[in-house]
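Recap from last week: sequence in, structure out.
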Amino acid sequence: MDLFFYVSFFLTQACLFEINDNFRSVSFAIKGNLLTVYFVLSRQSNDDEEAIYHEIMSLFDLWLSEFLEANNIEFEYELNQEVIYNHNKDFILSLPKNNDFVASVFQRKESEE
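Predicted structure tokens:
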């Protein structure tokens, strides 16, 4: 069973209907038992921060933990999130190279303007 597929799947599902034009990307990294989700937003927004903390992350954690338990998969994880604000269209999120796994589940297409 590919755990990384399910992490990507549940994170993508949790983001549905919450992502708006302020979201530039959503990625995650796993290093050992540390699972960190990175949100890049164009600007600070209390509504978007609330959606991240109270909707996306809570649903993601719930669905992932229930899936792991239902399938008897041993993966004791520590879940963190980081919100990064950057409106520069050329900005690329650079994550440390020593992660066990890194994936992007959403990347907004930037206009050529």
